[in-house]
Amino acid sequence: MPKIKTKRAAAKRFKKTGTGKFVHFKPCKSHLLTHKTRKRKRNLRKDKVASEAMERQIRRMLPN
């Protein structure tokens, strides 16, 4: 059987942690920032751990 190719879009967006969980950046931080509060923008800086349902999809996209 041939090797399974990695989805490059997913590889750029998700990072695997040491414990095997997946981390990603929160959306909504690229534009239209003037009307968003300082607190909201600050909270968008942090990484977020993917949910279990999302994790199953990510594992399929990132076979490594």
UniProtKB/TrEMBL annotation:
Keywords: Ribonucleoprotein, Ribosomal protein. GO terms for cellular component: cytosolic large ribosomal subunit. Residues 31-64 are annotated as: Disordered. GO terms for molecular function: structural constituent of ribosome. Residues 46-58 have a biased composition (Basic and acidic residues). PANTHER family: 54S RIBOSOMAL PROTEIN BL35M, LARGE RIBOSOMAL SUBUNIT PROTEIN BL35M. Belongs to the bacterial ribosomal protein bL35 family. It comes from Dissulfuribacter thermophilus. This is Large ribosomal subunit protein bL35. Pfam families: Ribosomal_L35p. HAMAP family: Ribosomal_bL35 (MF_00514). SUPFAM superfamilies: L35p-like. It comes from the Bacteria. Residues 31-45 have a biased composition (Basic residues). GO terms for biological process: translation.
